[in-house]
Specification:
2 domains; alpha+beta; 503 residues; CHAD domain; eight-stranded antiparallel β-barrel; 10 strands; Hypothetical Protein Pfu-838710-001
Length: 503
Amino acid sequence: MASKHNQARSDGELNRERELKLECELGDIGKLLHHPVLRRATALPQSGGLLRTTYFDTPDLALQQAGIALRIRNHNGRFIQTIKAEGHRRGIALDRSEWEHEVDGNLDANAAFETPLRPFFEDEAIRAHIQPLFSVKTIRRVFLIDTGRATIELALDRMSISACGRSSRATELELELKAGEAREIFRVAKDLARALPLRLSMLAKSDRGYRLLDSYEPKPIKSRRPPVVADTPSAVAFQMIARETLSQLVQNEELWRSSKDPEALHQMRVGLRRLRTAMAFFKPVLSGRRARKINAELRWIGKKLNRARDLDVLLERLRSAHAEHPLGLNASDVAQSRAAAYMKLAQKLEKPRFKRAILNTAIWIETGAWLEAASKKARKPVVRIATKALARRWKRICEEVNDIPELSTAKRHALRVRVKALRYGGTFFADVFKGHTGRKKALMKSLEHLQDVLGEMNDIAVGDAALANNRTSLPDSAEAVRALMPMAEAAARRMRSIRPFWE
């Protein structure tokens, strides 16, 4: 593979790029350079220096939408054209196909012949509109790390990104696997993180540039179904699910910090809850002190998200309240409280504890002792754990839905959480249980409906609590809850009438 110091192959050979990205504060560079990991590493001064990179796309961002990045990088007078293509999934570490080719400073269509870019260059209408969109100036220092199990290139980049008269700056570490075991990049990250707070990042440099464009509208990342099948070993299945859920959390956290999009915050919390649900489903595989510590830190993060997200929900209800269900609340007061909660959350996300919690979770997913354990449960096909976990939760939910009208607000909320966890589990294991497609679809839909009704009840309770904190007069919400009760009971009956797809 052409390395960061641009020893590019002239034949444009296909390679795969495996790298972990971390952000650090500019003021922490000195501490990083004196870290034992870098003091033992081999400096590659010829690989660093000033890099000037131009990224290309069409005005309507056709390449970006196809998961393709096209750039030309100038390093010491050599111009390297690089094409990168994402797979269907973006995990904790970036894993992309990469084609590099030395050029004269202009785009070379011939170098794209055997790449995903070929259809765009063959279409003359699209090809004519491929143009420079943004640039990245990077001051780079490069080190080669030999862990004994892997050779890893560490690039320390100070970047300035420019587009449309706007600019942004970032300081980034890239740990790229050159040879050996992929998990070693996480072990190196763990050593570095002991000395300074590093933020796990899933932003490619191209992502940072696109975010400066007027035509780019970043969208919150929704959950994706991990490709877990019946005979997948349980430990492997958990790792696949955990990677996907943490990826959802981190990508939305990055988006929320830059945009303050309420939907990004919602999807961040969804990713967090899905990850904790997965840990609960796979508890027999993950038992141990480290797993409990990770779960405790994730619970702490969840608590920090709750206040801002609860106010999002309340504000949305106020702004869309129907005349027949007036809440009688002052939306502007709630909006001010939400703004204050957003500011407080933004500060929390910059704290070392938050950064370490996320990075430590990623490291645990990739290198945790649970992966090395010779546990029979860890090696068993996931269908066994999935069947038991789903059946146990189903049984408890069926017992509780018989008495929904009698449940307290707290118990209704707990029931909703369990229904949601069962839905998440059904999604995790959708491909584990291949048959009974009709039952599977019907049950998942009924669970979603029950969750939504219970959610409306919970939103009323959360709104009451939020307003109490704001010292605003509380509406009479008991009638609204009573009006929803028949819907909840009907949803519960429908759910219980469907035979589970795991039986």
